[in-house]
Amino acid sequence: MNTEVIMLVEDNQDDATLTIDALQANHIRNKIFLAKNGVEALDYLFGQGVYEGRSPTQLPVLMLLDLKLPKVDGLEVLRRVRADEHARLIPIVILTSSNEDEDRLKAYSLGTNSYVRKPVDYDDFLRVAGQLGQYWLSVNEPPYKL
């Protein structure tokens, strides 16, 4: 089993399940950490709160980040990650249902690597999520090796 972690930040359980299923269907065997809100994602990344003691140097190889999250929204998570010296190079893909130009422009201005709208159709969702995993984990060359 691959020990590199994919962080999925998603509050909708159906979308989280679909994304995990799509990654597994595409033979992506990385451990997946699911954060259900922005606070949980930041706490995990920075080893604080309930994740105190977890080393913040153990970074995910990919973050799939929803925008519309409870507690701390996805744009704020993105801003905080990009502001952190150690975490700023994590590849982050915004995976959202938002079609707002303002959201897309803000996400890119804050440093997202990619912005993908969640397909509504089940089969399309599985295909897109699987392609994301394949690209970012198999094709893309990350700035650092974990």
From TrEMBL:
Keywords: Phosphoprotein
Organism of origin: Nitrosomonas communis
Signal peptide residue numbers: none
SMART domains: REC (SM00448)
Transmembrane domains' residue ranges: none
Protein name per UniProt: Chemotaxis protein CheY
Superkingdom: Bacteria
The UniProt record lists the keyword Acyltransferase: no
Organism lineage string: Bacteria, Pseudomonadati, Pseudomonadota, Betaproteobacteria, Nitrosomonadales
Stored Gene3D superfamilies: 3.40.50.2300
Residue stretches in coiled coil: none
One GO BP: phosphorelay signal transduction system
Domain Response regulatory: start-end pairs: 5-133
Annotated positions of the 4-aspartylphosphate modification: D66
SUPFAM superfamilies in the cross-refs: CheY-like
